[in-house]
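Project standup — Tuesday

K.O.: blocked on the structure for the chain from last sprint. Re-posting the sequence here as requested.
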Amino acid sequence: MDIYVGNLPYQVDDQKLQELFAQHGTVTSARVIVDKFSGESKGFGFVEMPDKAQAEAAIQATNDQDFMGRNLRVNESQPKPRGGAGGGGGGKRGGGGRRDRW
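H.V.: unblocked you, prediction finished:
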């Protein structure tokens, strides 16, 4: 089960995130998302736990709990929406009217 962990303190790294969730069961992976240019934490990450019951217990135990001065926001990770209807994605098409009318 994939778990989203938000409102992470910026000094938390992958190892600290794994240690936090390992208290509640087996952790397959733990990664803090970092800015690709600065290398600094974006304040959220993902944890993967193979046992659903352990993952659910970890979510219950850590959600809205203080961790290094910040209350974590923890829930089951939702799949990232793909492009398509309502996606608003980028690209060269769409996006408004003519700019020369200003």
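K.O.: great, moving the ticket to review. Residues 2-72 form a domain with the Alpha-Beta Plaits fold (CATH 3.30.70.330). The first strand starts at residue 2 and ends at 6.
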